[in-house]
Amino acid sequence: MAQFTFTNNTYAGEALAGFMASTLLEADSVKRGLLTVINDVKSRKVILDVDDDVVLQNPSGMFADQSTTAQQVESYLDPVVYEFMKQEQWDKLVQSWESQQLKPGAFLDYEGVVDLSDFMVQRYLTKIQIANERLYWLGKGATKEAAFTAPFAGLLPSIAAASGVYKAGLGKSDTSMAATAISASGVVTVSSTSTLKDGDVVTITGVTGSIKDTTNGGSGIDVAGQSYFIQVASATTFKLVRNYNEINTRKAAIFSGTATAATVSYINASNVLGVLSGIYAQLDPADRSQDDFNLQIPLHVGYAYAQAQADKATNVLNAFTDKKKMDYLGLPLQLMNHWQANTILGARSSNLFLGVDLLGDASELSTVYMKPYTNDNVVRMKARMKAAVSFKFANELFYLSA
User: What's the pLDDT band for 102 if we cut at 50, 70, 90?
Assistant: First the structure.
């Protein structure tokens, strides 16, 4: 039976009303209209695409067909069902600060305490929304909350693997460098750290060695493909401080094993203008002229862009105090809170699809106090969700990653 666990519960003096929890980044892709939501997806939905060429021919008294074939292509939304289920026993609450809210009488010690239960419902709900956001974009493999068995690829991995997508990398000298060692304490050795700053986010690929990220215990995960906040240690070394996927938990990165070589890729204030300039030049003119076209960038790239704007400003009194506009040459930049680091996606929202059974599923959490039914002094919380993601036109997508 799950029980609340109290740490440093002095239970002395008087508690302030209410409860506090650590700050979480909002999950709001749907609210911002970055995805086209298709409701009532109870089973596979087929999205049809049809196209044909136009041939301008010589005049003819007799009809002459242009002899082209109209192509119809299908893509699919295959919904996956998954649930959140949590049960809490409330007995320990009467021995904590919550006892202040109980009325006299032994029988009332067995009544569920409303304040904490309501607070926890809202807290769970926020975390469910974040988990869904990560699931939609990053897929099951990069969403640690996802323990269900059904496959769920996610939009970014699907786009990265798709043929026809316009893909670019960070392999140039101003966005990548070679590492000659990564220690078991996460210290990376490179030729120079002159273009790096504390707080930058780097992506590690091409790892040679046995190093694992053991931040969340167990045997760990491969460091290859992971991204980290860094602190510069010297002219040739920097330390991997926190896995970018732990942006909400704020866990310090822990490693086992070492590496003798790796590639370090990054977008920061020193190169972000060049990266955006290169992307802008490569975008399809027909796509970027559409009203629903966005460049979706991770949070750290947005911070780097704001810093670069301030650094480049000359004779501007408020260069380092004013909030910076998040667009580039008229293209809106959408800051993505739960996103793959050093990855930029150019896409129309009408080309990215989220299928759900009921739109409210991701924002509803049912709770039942079981005592009136089973005489068990527990509260059960459950949320059932069904979702699928897909895109339609691969050749209208721009994808940059490490």
Answer: low
